[in-house]
Specification:
InterPro entries: Ankyrin_rpt, Ankyrin_rpt-contain_sf, NPHP3-like_N, P-loop_NTPase. Keywords: ANK repeat, Repeat. This is Nephrocystin 3-like N-terminal domain-containing protein. It holds the Pfam family Ank_2. This protein is mainly alpha-helical and about 1000 residues long. Among the domains are: about 200 residues, Rossmann fold (3-Layer(aba) Sandwich), CATH 3.40.50; about 60 residues; about 110 residues, Ankyrin repeat-containing domain (Serine Threonine Protein Phosphatase 5, Tetratricopeptide repeat). It is built from 48 helices and seven strands. The strands form two sheets. The protein has a five-stranded parallel sheet, with helices on both faces. A two-stranded antiparallel sheet has the order 6-7. Strand 6 and strand 7 form a beta hairpin. Helix 20 runs antiparallel to helix 22, helix 28 packs antiparallel against helix 29 and helix 39 runs parallel beside helix 41. About 40% of the residues are buried.
Amino acid sequence: MREEQASQQNPQPPNGDGGSEFASTVQGHNVDLGNKSFTRRDNAHTINHNYYAPTSEYEHRGEKRKYEDEQDHDGQTFGYERLLKSLDFPQIDAQHENIRKAHSKTCKWILERPEYHDWLNPSKVQEHHGFFWIKGKPGAGKSTLMKFLLSNARSKMKSKIVIFFFFNARGQDLERSTIGMYRSLLQQLLLKIQRPQSLLDSELLSRISETHEWGTEALRTLFEEVVQSLKSTPLVVFIDALDECNVDEIRYRISSFKSLGDSTVSAGIEYHVCFASRHYPHVTMPRKVDLVLEGHEGHEQDIASYLDSELAIGNSKLADDIRSELQEKASGVFMWVVLVTGILQQKYDQGHIHALKQTLREIPGDLHELFRDILTRDNDNRDELLLCIQWVLFAKHPLKPEELYFVIRSSIEHGRIVEWDRDEIQDEVIRNFILSSSKGLAEITRSSTNPTVQFIHESVRDFLLKDHGLKDILIESSGNLEAESHERLKKSCFEYIQNYEADDKKILVFRTSRREEITTDRGKTDEQFPFFRYAIHNVLYHANAAEEGNIGQTSFLDNFLLPVWIKYNNLFETKAKRRYTLQASLMYILAEHGLGSLIGSNINSQSCFDTENERYGAPVLAAMATGNRKTVWRLMKRETRNEQPTSRLHDLCDEFLEYQTRFRIGRNFTFAQRRGILSYILDFGQGIVASFALASCRPFLELALEDENPLFYAVRFADDYPPLVQLLLDEGVGVECRDTKLKSPLHHVAAKGNEAILILLLSKGASLDCQDIGGRTPLSHAAGNSQGIIVLLLLSQGANLEYADNEGRTPLAYAVRAGSDSTVYFLLAKGANIETVDNMGTTPLFHTTLVFEMFLLKVINVAKILLDLGAIIDKTDHTGQTPLMRAATLFNSQLFDLLVHRGADINKTDNDGCTALLYATRCGVLESARFLILHGASVHMTDSTNGRSVFSYAVERDETWRGVVELLLCRGVLVEQAYTAGITPLSYAAMGAL
């Protein structure tokens, strides 16, 4: 039991909507997220849609669009299902399931309370912003009351969306974390509403996999977006045990809900949240409805009803007095009532009715003191009790009942391995054993799929750890109870592994490499020896925890059965790529599992940079791949064991802790010997670790790198740790090395803009005008990336201003295309040729019409500079096109206006007889066409390739072109004139939309 009462009935509220007279007016749960942050489709991929003239397939567009829509819908559905699966986790509803239903005569009182009605009253939302906070002492019965309220809401609030999360401090990580809460709430919410269109956006869903690693802020943002999209659909949220985490996380949760509550009130969204928690820690929330359980008349009546029903000691005056005294002594703590009821009932059943009053007087009134009394009352099965308590407290994850049963038996029977005979050891036997071993303070959860063992209430854990209750039952202790407990659990695991390996009944594994037989062996092992998997997976975890508590593990590691452990770990690992070779080192395994404390106890001479034939290559890479920053630091510290105090390595270790750079590569990479460890370390973005490796192990420089020299990685990530470049150069790495695209380190630095590294490379003799595979120089890359300071430095060192690449483009052309007005001005001031042309005859001014959309505004200033300094406005390229003609195909009103007002020839023709207006109409650029007509462009021009006119192109466009057609008609275009193919404008109009 988590908090208290047991019953069989589902209580019925007195009126129709969960005890509230305020009925919702909403019918159904239709949701529209609107055009919020998830909707990107409306403004994406629109740059080039007007460039394409009608094709012969024009009449089939409708059918094609329908097919594509169906394809998109299938992909979106799959992505949406992926999103839901990414939110799911095995214990998502475990705590709610484990709480017993309220006793049939309890909890109904809350539905009549004015606090409850005020909470659901929309007219009072400005007073409380939708928040109802139930508080009570540990064990008061809050969770049972919350489960009652949730059940009532589900059955009675049919017009509302009802979701919930019950925190469980005794459960696994997601059961007690904010991330777990948001994942659960989001999944419930998305399952209860129609699929919101903005969540079906393929760009969003394409980034989500079923194993997506969610962050708290991403989940919070998504949850708030969905809630704010509900509009007229009321939402009711129940959050139990809000306090079962550290204070900072509690404050974060409250702040998040408060912020959302404020925004929903402003938006008129009906949003109700019910919290339940202890009184401490105190977190201020100005607007809410409060209800305190203990001392409340309804809560006290619940206790009385429970005692009348469950304390079966008759109806005598003595019995009434005992019930009354028990209730008074309980001080509103239902958990205390339940435990004491069991003790008194046992006395009564044994015929000791005369001793009931004395027993009740001897029982401590404080819940924690009651736990202490239960645990220390006698010495029966003390070893079992201690082991049971330690396993429930300190197991890496909650144990299954059979796991706990067999490890306790193995430990108290001197390591004997017992095979599970289900005819002899049935579930009831295990249940009774756990009840007896824990003296009733542990229970098996009610999960139908994955039952585990946990304490009956979080207050038991608080008593054992915070109130030093564990010390009362741990007879011999040096003071570090947690470390001593982990040492005991480690020994239990290790002895189990040793004795299993020596047992004749063990399953012979890996007899073949066939997947089916390995799966069979794994299943048999789990079935016959249910604790063995846990022992293999966590023996090192417990050893690491003991080491953290200063219980040395050197002797343990010296005697550790590494080949045996690898064999069975591989058996339980379902993914082949995660298995180890039999030659894997202990250090590598410790590093991959993040067991940093044990690394210092491993006294062999191996370096963490030594590569092995394992997935991640070296221990240090294994630690990086799994994100264990502290373990990387411990590996580095271990390397300094024999170093002098003045060694630079000590400083690098300290710097590694100071520079909190993230690891750029995750678990999915696989080490390749051809690249070498140094390049991987740099790929992870760990310049300090690379420097450490070079300073401690120079042979690493000798590793062959087929793709790139270490210097390339160093300059690429120079911002992470600048001294690394200097270190590599001091070690003799050449500055003229090239990558696969023939770029030198100077190319990379010039593009990135790191001034200090550039000067360093130049001081080492780097070539100023070296060319990459495309013929571009460092100056070209600097200009094309708007690195003005780098351009200045390179020119001051003598870089060639007019060096053209394979396409004939100079640094000036790239500066123009980047929209960098300051770089353009500087290059021209240094003598760059303003009329230089590339292989296509394109001038710098012409390049202003070829920029990406993101640079359209910047390029106006560039064009003004070029024109002010004398650029020829109508200079043509090899096809006869002018800048104005090219600009007509991509309308930029400011650039267009600039060119026309600076004197561009509006009627100039190219080699095919096309004018700017012909380009605009042929390419379907409406604004360009309108602008040119209004500024006097000739409307009678025809191109020389097919004889078509401006009018023939305009009339085949859609309805939006009607204004342009009318302008052309007003200017006297010939409507009936046939062209080269004998087709008149009217024929084109019939094929179009006008």
